[in-house]
């Protein structure tokens, strides 16, 4: 059984930043669904490159079978990890259903780390991220935020209903956010 923590929040809320610090310090392996999709987009011979880029630019969601297979392959490649941080997934109901179908029985879902941050702050962070992402522009960000509000936030609410959400306000400096996140992990791993 793989231990899994889903890390969700609006675009630019700091998921990747916090996950890389948890990976360094707590022995979880960070798997960003977006990074895996970007790597697949660049992979020579991939049949999904154009489809993935189209979804990324439009802030829409790639079919779950593609994302889930990339995640499962990455988990198999690091099978000795203490656990996995699944960053930016599941993003909608179809993602959640596809995940259950493919991964149900193979994973122990510990909790959902929800990094909450006002959208205007998030957009500003993305516009200044400086990584050359094809979706860090005003037009794509508008669509990404719309997808987040319409499809991803309802998934967080679903997890909330079953008591799985641990919310941390990520509008604050990274060190403060990280300190609170560490407390969340300490409590979860005590049990
Ligand atoms: N707490 C913070 N305070 C200020 N800047 C931050 C904070 N956390 C992250 N950042 C910066 O904001 C930008 C976005 O952060 P990051 O890439 O971690 O977000 P993300 O949630 O993974 O975004 P996306 O959903 O677009 O992948 C980066 O430039 C990062 O350095
Ligand atoms: O599960 C996922 C994760 C991501 N996507 C697509 O990738 C971009 C970028 O994701 P980030 O988390 O911001 O790196 C996202 O807007 C989607 O288009 C996806 O389809 N499914
Ligand atoms: Mg990210």
UniProtKB/TrEMBL annotation:
One of its GO terms (molecular function) is ATP binding. It comes from the Eukaryota. Its main location: cytoplasm. It is found in: Cytoplasm; Nucleus. CMP binds at residue 95. One of its GO terms (cellular component) is cytoplasm. Gene3D superfamilies: P-loop containing nucleotide triphosphate hydrolases. It catalyses: UMP + ATP = UDP + ADP; dCMP + ATP = dCDP + ADP; CMP + ATP = CDP + ADP. Residues 32-62 are annotated as: NMPbind. ATP binds at residues 12-17, 129, 172. GO terms for biological process: 'de novo' pyrimidine nucleobase biosynthetic process; UDP biosynthetic process. Keywords: ATP-binding, Cytoplasm, Kinase, Nucleotide-binding, Nucleus, Pyrimidine biosynthesis, Transferase. Its EC number is 2.7.4.14. Binds 1 Mg(2+) ion per monomer. It is an enzyme of class 2 (transferase). Its cofactor is Mg(2+). Monomer. NCBIfam families: UMP_CMP_kin_fam. Belongs to the adenylate kinase family. UMP-CMP kinase subfamily. Catalyzes the phosphorylation of pyrimidine nucleoside monophosphates at the expense of ATP. Plays an important role in de novo pyrimidine nucleotide biosynthesis. Has preference for UMP and CMP as phosphate acceptors. Consists of three domains, a large central CORE domain and two small peripheral domains, NMPbind and LID, which undergo movements during catalysis. The LID domain closes over the site of phosphoryl transfer upon ATP binding. Assembling and dissambling the active center during each catalytic cycle provides an effective means to prevent ATP hydrolysis. This is UMP-CMP kinase.
């Amino acid at each position: 059984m793989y231990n899994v923590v889903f890390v969700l929040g609006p675009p630019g809320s700091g998921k990747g930043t916090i996950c890389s610090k948890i990976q360094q310090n707590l022995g979880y392996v960070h798997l960003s669904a977006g990074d895996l999709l970007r790597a697949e987009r660049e992979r020579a011979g991939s049949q999904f490159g154009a489809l993935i880029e189209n979804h990324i630019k439009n802030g829409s969601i790639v079919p779950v079978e593609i994302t889930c297979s990339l995640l499962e392959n990455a988990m198999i490649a690091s099978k000795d990890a203490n656990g996995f941080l699944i960053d930016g997934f599941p993003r909608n109901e179809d993602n959640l259903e596809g995940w259950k179908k493919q991964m149900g029985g193979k994973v122990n879902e510990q909790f959902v780390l929800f990094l909450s941050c006002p959208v205007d702050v998030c957009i500003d962070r993305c516009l200044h991220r400086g990584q050359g992402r094809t979706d860090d522009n005003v037009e794509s960000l508008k669509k990404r935020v719309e997808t987040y509000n319409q499809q991803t936030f309802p998934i967080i609410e679903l997890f909330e209903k079953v008591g799985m959400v641990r919310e941390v306000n990520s509008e604050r400096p990274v060190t403060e956010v990280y300190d609170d996140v560490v407390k969340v992990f300490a409590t979860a791993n005590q049990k």
